[in-house]
Amino acid sequence: MWRQTLGMWIVILNIIRPHTNVNKPRLLNGSTCLGKLLKQVRQTDLSEEWQEVLLELILDTALLRCPVGRKKSRLASKLRTMYCGDWKIHVSRDVPEINIQTLENFMYAVVGDEHFIVCKPACEHS
């Protein structure tokens, strides 16, 4: 099992590279990548640097074999430990019933069949 996870991370790390358009990650030869694992970053208003940071943490969390509630708490714990602040996180297998247009400093991404919404504290690490 750990070999499969390690292999998946090697593929992900070889695919994602700095300054890649997060909405359409691409391989070096230009073809679309990540296929079924990362459906897409649906919406965000964060800088490219924050998009890369959050996407890496979201992918890392999505690979965990645990209930969705535990994934939410692990992601929240990582963000608080690494960047401090009061991060707002929503993780579910259903399409969220949150009005995304009212959010600020956020990323909404879908990995597999899980929906992640992460809101960065407004005054922290701009």
Q: Which structural category fits the helices and strands?
A: alpha+beta
What's the N-to-C terminus distance? Answer: 38 Å
Overall morphology: globular
| Individual helix count | 3
Query: Which stretches are low in confidence, meaning pLDDT under 50 for 5 or more residues running?
Result: 16-38
The largest pleated sheet is described as: 4 strands, antiparallel
Mean pLDDT metric: 73
What is the succession of H and E elements?
Answer: HEHHEEE
Structurally, the number of domains stands at 1
Strand content: 15-25%
Describe the structure in your own words.
This protein is of the alpha+beta class. It has a single domain, classed as Protein Inhibitor Of Neuronal Nitric Oxide Synthase (2-Layer Sandwich). 36% of the residues lie in helices and 19% in strands. It has a four-stranded antiparallel β-sheet with strand order 1-3-4-2, covered by helices on one side. A hairpin with a 2-residue loop joins β3 and β4. The longest helix has 16 residues. It is globular. It starts with a helix and ends in a 7-residue tail after the last strand. About 18% of the residues have low confidence.
